[in-house]
Fold this sequence. Notes:
The protein is α+β, with helices and mostly antiparallel strands and 423 residues long. Helix content is 30%, strand content 26%. The chain is built from eleven helices and 22 strands. The strands form seven sheets. Strands 1, 2, 8, 9, 10, 11 and 22 form a seven-stranded mixed beta sheet that branches. Strands 14-15-13-16 form a four-stranded antiparallel beta sheet. A three-stranded antiparallel beta sheet has the order 3-7-6. Helix 1 runs parallel beside helix 10 and helix 2 crosses helix 10. The longest helix has 25 residues. It is globular.
Amino acid sequence: MKKFNAQVLIVGGGVAGTTAAIAAARTNASVMLIESQYALGGIATNGMLCNMFGTHLQGKPFLGGIPNEIAESLITSGNGELFSKVPLSSGPNVVVDRVDYNPEAFKILLDEMVSRHEIDVWLGHTVTAVHQMNDKVLAVFGTATEVYEVEADMVIDATGNANVFKMMAIDIHRDEKVQPVSLMFRLCDIDKAVVRNLTSDTIQAVIRQGLEAKILPARVLGIAKIPNSSQIGVNATRGVDIHHNDTKALSQAMIDMRRQISEIVPFLKANLKGFSDASLSGVAAVVGVRDADRLIGQYEIKDEDLMKGVKFEDAVCTCCYPVDIHIAENGGSILKNIGGDGYYTIPYRSMVTEAAPRVIAAGRCIASQRAAFASLRIVGTSMAIGQAAGTAAAMAAVSHTDALTLSVKQLQQKLVEHGLRIR
């Protein structure tokens, strides 16, 4: 069996894992990144998400660091566009900033960034086992026909589901109640001028009409304008009571949501101005899951922390996105704005556990309660957490320490040097 070595191993190449890899490389560590799909970016690219939240606040860059570097790269290249104070279709009284983008261009941008930093990327490979040794971590990965080993000083769990911790037989948190899943799709030949001027009132009227006709399965009709094209991304499907670890149920949900799309498309063509010539141009191959298994860390971000807009002493990044819990029973959402001055911070303690000193959680699988998770699970915050995790892992590997003995103050200083907002 062929064996590799890396100072930092990152399992999962979604936005959190890819950002972690870039951050670790910029902190002078050798980096290996393993991703089961054949493109980086996770749900943001393979899932055709088409918009990212949390990178901006009130029309200005908010997170800083790599997240805003990525957002601004998409915008300046013409592959992204910033919209400020946009009402959420699931609750128009809550407004957010968002960047609509071309997910195919996002894939290419991430490829370019990891290549520029000479990161050892393994697409189409899956990690199947992780073993903690004295001062190293050994991971087994491969395909159906090939198996390899990699020995690393530090590992980042960026799987979006705490899979590394589970492979190490470390206890995790799992919510009993799950949010609905979704499947994004794209429409082409849209009248861009009309779509650009769609109002929240118009969208809400179409949602009511779709619910009455039993075409729309939920009170959600998210429309993302894909820049420099006549295409839009649409979020309107729902699969309810589908647990994110039940692969058979997810398989059936994909089939059912594609059937929903076949009914939603003609409905939108008939009922939205500017959509009459629209046709279906793409359906995501990856289901959008709103839940995740999560680490039981040194600190669990509490729902009340968000309502108070808490700023932690060991903060490593920030989040300004509201609580957004999708409800299966009535097809709606529970939406709550962040308290205080409109944002809170992510504490380093929520990313680490005494049970695995050489593993750091990144993205959705950090320690958090349900409502807190429903805020921080978005693309922007996941990238910020990824940058913090990658920087921490690299600093620990280069200084021959681990996640628990790493100086948090030195980590914060490095993150600020690299442009990430921590408070």
